[in-house]
Amino acid sequence: MQTRSRQQWTDRAIIAIMAVLGVFMLLPFMWLFSMSFRPVADAYKMPPSFLPPTFDLTNYRAVLASEIPFLQIYWNSIQIAVLVTVGQLITCTLAAFAFARLEFPGRDSLFFIMLVGLMFPAQVTIIPIYLGYAEAGLLNRPIGLALMYLTSSFGVFLVRQFMRSQPKALEEAALMDGAGYFKIFFRISLPQLRPALSALGIITFTQTWNYYFQARVLLEPQESMTLPVAMDMLRGFMGQGNLSMVMAAMSMAVLPVILIFLLAQKLVIEGVTMSGIKN
Length: 279
Fold this sequence. Notes:
By secondary structure, the protein is an all-alpha fold. Helix content is 72%, strand content 0%. The protein has helices spanning 2-36, 58-64, 70-101, 107-116, 122-136, 142-147, 153-164, 169-176, 181-192, 194-209, 213-218, 227-235, 243-275. It has two domains: 2-56; 63-276, MetI-like fold. Residues 275-279 have low confidence and may be disordered. It is flat and about 70 Å long.
């Protein structure tokens, strides 16, 4: 009886700690949205107040009416993030299946060479990419930035490791029954990868949504830039821009990432749970 009571108190303590941590994690987002409704005169008010005096949409209207084509830039970021996410989910899954389940000469060596690419930052390869894009006519085009990241070494590594943790009994039985590799992949392997693909999708979408350096180099006109570059322009030289207006733009920019996480968090939790199961 005492052991059960102690376990209940432990569970309640863990839940309480997680709730407190969740509140602290939400505070920056709550402050962001609160600042977006303040007039610029109250942005640096001391002492600061957590809630704005009035919920005014003036800052949001100012963002949409600014010289920067915010809606077009928003659409550019959506296009790039969706294309890159879908592309990586397809290419990384197929490559991971080949590295995890197929036997061919030089497989491990090719996988090692692919992982070496993780060691090079974007700044190292941006010059040859820029020159190649200039020759191909892909500069200042959002589709060009998306084409550069249709696959990734990290995505292949993540899905491959998850696939190697799954049992091979069903796949081997299907192979003995005469099923081909494509049928095994789509009928058996792919349904088991939902948690890994959801995690990869969230990571890829968030990274692509936050691209700044690559977009700054490859996309020059305002009509083709992405949201992080637009945030920098709204901030102004040495941060002299309208802070409340910048917060309003950031509030609109962060909504898709929050929505994607809320929609896929169930699969992410499922993936964490399944990773603790021993085959």
